[in-house]
Fold:
Amino acid sequence: MNQLSFFIEAGDPRVREIGDGLSYKANLFDSNNNISGTKDITLVFTKELKNGDFIASVVETVHLPGGDIFLQGAINVNDFEALKTQKIDIIGGSGIYEGVKGKEYITQLNSDVFDVASISLAIH
Structure:
């Protein structure tokens, strides 16, 4: 469930375009449906492909007990909305996650609800 959202509008609000995006905070739930942390996400459309797909720059901070995990990368927004798994790089952390690297795998679960997703972190 997203707690706070800000939409970034680059121009005409009726069309998707480079510069559009959003920033929000979401709760993270474990397999027992208990809140296990939160996540701050900022996503901005940075490129439109010839087929009409949009690539978005993504910056995230995952807040967990014991520290934070920092992520940065790019996703294909159209593929994400089509429920295809996207990968984002884990670039570091704080607390017990200091120096972590790896990947986040994120799959939107419902094409009608943007911020309901399955997330797994592969840390090494």
In short: The helical segments are 77-81. The first helix runs from residue 77 to 81. DSSP finds one helix and eight strands in the chain. The mean pLDDT is 90.
